[in-house]
Fold these 2 entries.
Entry 1:
Amino acid sequence: MPKKWGLLMLFVFVLVFSVACSDETNTAEETEKEEGTTTPVSSEVTEEAGTIKVGVLASLTGALESYGKQTRNGFELGLEYATDGTMEVAGKKIEVIFEDTETKPEVAVQKATKLLEEDEVDFLVGSSSSGDTLAVLPLAEEYEKIMIIEPAVADSITGSEFNPYLFRTGRNSSQDAVAGAAAIAGEGVKIATFAPDYSFGWDGISAFKAAAEKLGAEIVVEEYADPAATDFTSNLQKIIQAKPDYLFVVWAGANSPWNQIADLKLQEKGIKISTGAPDIPALSVMEPLVGMEGFSVYYHTLPNNPINDWLVDEHKKRFNGEVPDLFTPGGMTAAIAIVEALTKSEGNADGTALIDIMEGMSFETPKGTMTFRPEDHQALQSLYSIKLEKQEGVDYPVPVLIRELSPEETEPPILNNK
């Protein structure tokens, strides 16, 4: 009897200890999950149902912080919209892990590797910087995971550095150039160009020139300035002497030429200014360009469709009345594309299997219908011909729609030699 009683007590002790360990392990796992996931979007699910994990790379701090946060906000809203608030697709919950690249390619690689190896994500999304994105591209192919490119614009992403696991919802540099040309070019139109004297400026003008000449325009002068310069008088004087109908400007950086263009009264001399409309903070310094005609990737009043209406309304509700900015709809579009692909695959997140599903896939977005072109996986999409105008109650020049530029009009050249 004593021996049996001892065995019984031992059994009870082991049972209690096992339960305690189980509870402690579950608690530790929950704590670890809360600490390791930057922004979870879903609750726990049963093992049978499974979970789809998405890793989003974005500049959440640093110089491009506003871009990264726009992408993050848009992605979260996009998942909610695409799943009707369930945060699941094909019976599987969706979990999102955001990682800050700090706009440093080496950090982007570290964070992407962590997402792929430790978090075992099924998809990558990003990034705010083309440099970060280009550094990460080989990992998508190595791990055979679909990567949605948003909002990086470098042509080489879907060009020379293309691999079949990449799908871009953002537009590329050539689409910007084609849109810029479509907004102003035509038979007999004379255009001068002005850009910084390095690869960003050369590539932008080269793509614009090809598109503008294809539409019958003549490029009468090309001016390039030191990107660190603050005085552009000599460049602008040469442009005035060429007497163009338009001056198309490609520029990035704080030392912009807008004030000197206004001081030299180019528009009063009959030279219309054209460029791409930036995000809202940058629009606030474009007061000298009121009246200019150009193009826009997105401004919240430009698209006319129910998805954009939903985005604007929900964004205002959640972010103290603020409207979505330049890259918010891109984040939403990336989320919609993932849900659409998983719906078609019935929840199969295998990267190789998804390639065939996503090539040629069309889906609805805040900017209307987009289609992943099979040849390079670039999303063909609408952009907008606009005019900057002052509006009562708005403290920056507002992009006002002249006309929507269709996906066919803004289709860029295929650059990957596939």
Note: DSSP finds twelve helices and 17 strands in the chain.
Entry 2:
Amino acid sequence: MKVQKTPGIHHITAMVNDAQRNIDFYAGVLGLRLVKKTINFDRPEVYHLYFGNKTGEPGTVITFFPWANQLKGRIGTGQVGVISFIIPVGSIHFWEQRLQKFSIEFSDSERFGERYLQFTDPDGLQLELIERTEGPKNNRNFGGIQAENAIKGFGGAVLISAQPNKTAEVLENILGLECIGDEEGFLRFRSEGNLGNIIDIKLSPSVRGLMGAGTVHHIAWRAKDEEDLLKWRSLLQDKEYYPTEIRDRNYFKAVYFHEGGGILFEIATDPPGFSVDEPVTEIGNKLMLPSWLDSKREELEETLPSVEVRVLEGDK
């Protein structure tokens, strides 16, 4: 019987305060494309913003719930602590200069022989850039970023677990990642995909994480399709991880569960993707709503703050 394995990260979803500031940073500074502007299906008065590569492929998409009234969170156990993005080999100097241009403080770090450029977004999310040959080129030019320097997608993530051994067990025995290293307080796992494929578990003690602005809400793993997702759900039930029912998120179907270290995991299907309700050339331009909320479009457009993707002053 073939062992089920995820290719890696599907998307990562985080909490922030200000929608326009969020767009200015991830689209304006980092050059990601706003691939979908929709609402939080569970709280329609809050945007759900998706950023990714030119087509919003799985493994490239970071999403946000920007809600002005939420309290500041605290990064700690039970959360994704650091989000890594892959940049092309030879582009790190470009990114150092770019971060300096926008007055973003950064530092260098090393794990498993790789150099990481680390910084935070305006809400305090911890990010890092890593040069790797893996992953397809992101053929997108925007602002001051040309395709040869553009972020390709996720490199991976650092998980801060309340019980690292239990998180490791899920990565290895449920999701099918391979443990490839143990070094300086981190356990490293690798999946078979070429994006979002390196997961480090932090082994040293940490404070308890508190959900709020500047923290990751959940990390999602890739499933090939709905049939694959049903198999994952059945496996999770057999292993007593108590997954949710399959939920339709318009752009993918998903199940959610908490692993033993307290982190909220999701498994999401690759299809149908972000062109299911608008052409790829137009994705991210207008507010897209699920069918059951379309009758409230006018009301929601009045309630939600006005936002836009814009080239920042430093790039003009």
Note: Helices lie at 19-29, 92-101, 164-173, 226-238, 297-303.
